[in-house]
Amino acid sequence: MLHENPPAQYPLNHPIPLPKAPMKDDDPFVDRQGILAGSVRLTIGRVGQEIDVSGAIDSSRVYIPGVTVVIAPDAGIASDIAATRIVEVLRESGSRGLGTATGGTMGPIWQRVHAQIASDAALDLQSLFTVGLDEYVGLSPSSPQSYHQEMRSRLQPLQRFGFRSEQIHLPDTWDDKTGRPKSPQQLREECFRYEALVHSLPLRLQLLGLGHDGHIGFSMPWSDLHQRTHISDLSPKTRAANARFFSDDLDAVPKQAVTMGMGTLSAMAHRGTELLLIATGAQKADAVRDALFGMISPGCPASYLRLLPNVTFVLDQKAAGDLLGGVLEAPNPLISQPLRDMTS
Ligand code: F6R
To answer: For FRET with 153, which of 52, 106, 252, 296 sits at 20 to 30 Å CA-CA?
Structure first.
């Protein structure tokens, strides 16, 4: 079977409580929605240097209701931008929830977060909780390649601010009693538990990476875009890309994962969680182009983000690929005039 079905009672009509995130009237989310409705906003340069080309998109050809796209000169600056936003969230006193992603892109971002807060004596993270997008099926939480282990080591430096590893949440795919992966039935129950958990913890910010094939979390191409947390069969492309974390041994890469679905992210975004996607490197350029300018289709789960409010893509120039080439060099029928203004 390509994709596990969610439990019969779920997600249709399931009474998952969706508490309102505690948003203040002056929350930037409110402004941003106003600015961005019906437009794409491209920002090129360093933090603070903003060039607004809202309205540059011919809406008869592309449909981007409100994605902020930030193009940084290089991956280091893209990581700085993401880290700066994470630090802002960590410093907000009323903000306790951070949605995390795993994978290579996130490493430099967390290094920068730790550097930025290193001398912040007042920071108190005792009430912070993190909620991860996904976990492999088949790895114990102590396996070095498990996302439990990755998040423990990425967040370990936060301990000096009162943060404990118990505050890290990820899908539990391992049965401690038997010392084996959970059974299919147990995994389905875990999907249900995790989805409810995600919605019981209001998240200020959810970080997202981008798969080479356009996946988000482990929501694979051609999976149901309305799905909530589910069991995912990892695509061959995803397993091949992740073999680098398993000493290039493709056979060692798990075949399944439990992951939040695009429906989970949609519910989050609609109640005020900011979705921040970071993609760096030329190998992500095709996925970025498909996500921002391709058809909105299950073939590229990331394209679905264009239908959600409060989404930002932070890219480096390599990941922006054609997008940036179109902006600065070749005349691009979709984005031309305002860009000339911008570069003159
Ligand atoms: C894993 C996850 C994935 C990764 C994606 C990119 O939690 O969310 O969607 O973000 O596979 O991975 P890297 O950053 O290794 O290229």
So the answer is: 252
Domain boundaries, position 322: 36-117+125-343
CATH number of the domain within which 192 lies: 3.40.50.1360
Ligand 1 centre to CA of 102 (Å) is 6
Residue 218 confidence (pLDDT) above 60: yes
Residue 4 domain-assigned? no
Alpha-carbon dihedral 301, 241, 281, 72, rounded to 10 degrees: 50
**Would 231 be classed as within a structural domain?**
yes
pLDDT in tens, 300-324: 999 999 888 888 888 888 998 866 5
Pocket test for ligand 1, best of 139, 210, 223, 300 (most atoms within 8 A of CB): 210
Number of CB atoms found within 10 A of residue 175's CB: 15
Give the count of domains, the chain: 1
Structural domain contains residue 57:
yes
Rounded to an integer, what distance in angstroms lies between the CA atom of residue 122 and that of residue 55? 42
